Amino acid sequence: MRVSLALALAPLLGCAAPRAASGERPPNLLLIVSDDQGYRDLGSAGSPDLKTPALDRLAREGVRLTSFYVTWPACTPSRGSLFTGRYPQRNGTYDMYRNEAPDYGHRYTPDEYRVTFERIAGMDEREVLLPRALKAAGYVSGLFGKWDLGAQRRFLPLQRGFDDFYGFVNSGIDYFTHERYGVPSMARGNELTEADRGTYATFLFEREAARFIRAHRGRPWFCALPYNAPHGASNLDKTDPAIQAPPEHLARFPEPDPKNNRAVRRREFLAAMACMDDSIGRILALLDELGETERTVVVFLSDNGGGGGSDNAPLRGGKGHMTEGGIRVPCLVRWPGRLPAGRVSHDFLTALEVFPTLLAAAGARPPEGVVLDGFDMAPVLAGERPSPRGEMFWQRRGDRAARVGNWKWIGTLKGESLFDLEADVGESRDLSAERPGELARLRARFAAWTAAMEAAEPRGPFRDY
After folding, report:
1. Range of the domain at 97
2. Smallest Cα–Cα separation from 71: which of 61, 57, 83, 82?
3. How confident is the model at residue 23 (pLDDT cuts 50, 70, 90)?
4. In this structure, are residues 342 and 56 in contact, taking their beta carbons and an 8 Å threshold?
5. Residues 319, 303: Cα–Cα separation, whole Å
6. b (16+ CB within 10 A) / e for 405-416
7. Shared domain check, 328 and 414
């Protein structure tokens, strides 16, 4: 099985050949990540109640992907794959760095919190992250927003290849106090800071990204801008809104019946999204002002399927689930002069492709001796060739899934199901009883992938070795 899987993946690996011409300044790279955004939460995707002019500009000037997947249905492992180009089971971060006690109202003392799992876990130090791989090509790198790949100093962005960092290191904060369950959590570089307490987080991440872009004008830069919007706030005050937004953005949307919890949550979500879109619009305007638009690759995606308040139509399910709504996400890519404007791509692509695509755009070589699970997708986005991606696999504890071609298999502790995504993207008709041959084929492909992941060089923090 391991040999056959390696042959199947061979066309995908090692495809990040340098693209920039010799002597030509490579492009800037701007990676924007939203948190828990729904599949239809874009004006360009047909949202009935949300206007996103900045994101719609990216779609109009670039490529919108409709069949794009992340590697895990929640944040930490998904982000780990984005920065390594590797499956969570290969890079070692295949579950959350998160405490569950606060979900039940427990407030940690500072000393207690300091030794909890979300404070001591982190991405394996042997993993080569994107900013480190870009450094050899002359890039300066900054990250402004949500990190979520480790809180101890050795795991922080500055130790993993970034040159500049402002944000928080765990999976969520209060947007205004910047606390996580009552504990101050905003940092500049390696040190916590409360200097901006009271300012809405989206504005702060925009401010810092803009500072970084201005400071490094004239040389190639990589700017990661992972917003926490529209994720719910992480606090213990249950009287606070579940999703926080500035009053001026809340005022854009009609106030619903306070007894209608779903409508209340949707309004909060829409306001947080609108604020984030405004922020992205100002960053795009800054690129215009500096004359950097034509030499900047912009990639936008959500870290996982939509959470509370989101709109995942026409997909089934959402964040945390192996259904399409948990793992298929909005994605936009703009690269002036390389990708056509206004194109919609239905090609089967994943977040595993982002790492090698940005490396290729930068003219940087893949890390030596590192197995990447994706490929340079720029030719696919340009319409020059079909996607070589034929398979994708997911595992979250007892939940498993595989997509092979247009067939989707889901296996959980409650049973298994099979869907034909070409005819049924909403996964409404289980074909497992009608198509036992396809069911067996996808099970076998998942078993082969599992064997390959188990045979890979082990990485922490979860794996026993």
Report:
1. 16-390
2. 82
3. low
4. no
5. 10
6. eebbbbbeeeee
7. no
